[in-house]
């Protein structure tokens, strides 16, 4: 199988535009305004409850982990904390970014910012990256969030389970952005007036990580990293597992989500990290896609995915 160029700056990006696949008109099922409104109903109660449980459990697991440190008895508590930090943050980043977790927007924004820090995704960059993803879903050279390329790089996929590659790339991008630089790929989907926000967030995050490094040096212990940073590695496995189940092997370069959708049923234990989703249909919402087109507004202002 020929190796394709998935870069947003390569020849496939231009091919997608030439073939009319960029910002194309996708197939969509006609729904009345009343039916759409019924599907878009949201409540603050369930998400507030789950957020309290999520953050409360993290405090408890981390607290016990610190208390038992450096005994190996602390390991199970760090593993549980890691999943809540490095995996549960992924679904909360996604749902709150779409504005579907809470009815109240500031609640979505607050959890979105926190989840982005945990999962190491700049909240401004990824709003616009995800807007492009929903505009040009699985269009090679246009979609910056294609999970599994063709042919699949199995080594890269395996590295995802321990978060090394993703965290390393995120760290490099954060440092570059903190220096006031927007890379060429980011510039293809982040509007110029949003780019200073990317830089500001990167500098704030850099300060937090520097403070964590100084704390570790002062304590002569990796314990501060067990709370901030390392959980993105040792807790990444769950969101990668569920993410590959939802995304892996879907049809690309098509403009019909009936050809690249999949419903995955989740067991009860896995539902909480993925925001209590008993079944997840991997698709791109027509409402989001239309609003995101040409970057008229970030995906966070759209309806359900």
Task: Write a short abstract of this structure.
The protein has 16 helices and 2 strands. With 305 residues, it is mainly alpha-helical. The two termini are 32 Å apart.
Folded structure, characterized:
- The protein has one domain.
- With 305 residues, the protein is mainly alpha-helical.
- It has 16 helices and two strands.
- 35% of the residues are buried.
- The protein has a two-stranded antiparallel ribbon.
- The model is unreliable at 283-305 (pLDDT under 50).
- α5 packs antiparallel against α6, α7 (123-135) packs across α16 (286-292) and α9 packs across α11 (195-219).
Instruction: Sketch the major β-sheet.
Output: 2 strands, antiparallel
Poorly predicted parts: 283-305
Taking all Cα atoms into account, the compactness measure Rg is 20 Å
Overall shape: globular
Find the structural class using helix and strand composition: mainly alpha
Strand content: under 5%
> Could you report the average pLDDT, rounded to the nearest whole number?
89
Integer tally of domains: 1
Query: What spatial order of strands do you see in the largest sheet?
Result: 1-2
Contiguous helical run count: 16
Oligomeric state of the chains in view? single chain
β-strand number: 2
How do the helices and strands follow one another from N- to C-terminus?
A: HHHHHHHHHHHHHHEHEH
Distance between the termini: 32 Å
Helix content range: 55-70%
